[in-house]
Amino acid sequence: MTTGTRTPVPVDLAPLRSYRRRRGLLQVACVIISAFMAVPIYLIAVAAFSTRAGLNQFPQPFYPANFGTETMSTFLSSTGITAGFINSMTVGIGTLLLSSLVGAPAGYAIARYMFRGKDSYQLFLLFTRALPIVVLSVPLARVFLAAQIYDRPVAVILLHSALALPTTILITSSVFLAVPVDAEEAARIFGCTPVGAFMRVVLPLALPGMAAASIFTFVMSWNEVLGATILTFSQRTLPAQVLSSLADSPLAYRFAGGLVLVIPALIFIAIMRKYLLNMWGTTIR
Amino acid sequence: MAEIQINNLVKVYPGGSERANDDVSMHIDDGEFMVLLGPSGCGKTTLLRQIAGLELPTSGSIAIGGRDVTYMPVHQRNLSMVFQSYAVFPHRRVRQNIAFPLKMKKLPASDIDKKVAWAAELLQLTPYLDRFPAQLSGGQRQRVAVARAIVLDADVLLMDEPLSNLDALLRLSFRSELKRIVEQIGTTTVYVTHDQSEALSLGDTVAVMRSGKVSQMGGPLDIYDWPADTFVGSFIGSPPMNFLDGILQDGLLDIDGHRFTAPANAPRSGKVRVGIRAEAVGVVDDEGPNTLTATVQVVEPLGASILLTVEVGVHQLKVQAEPTAKTRTGDTVILRISDSAIRLFDPETGLAWLTGDSA
Question: In what order do the strands lie in the sheet with B188-193?
Answer without folding.
Answer: B79-82, B156-160, B188-193, B33-37, B205-210, B213-218
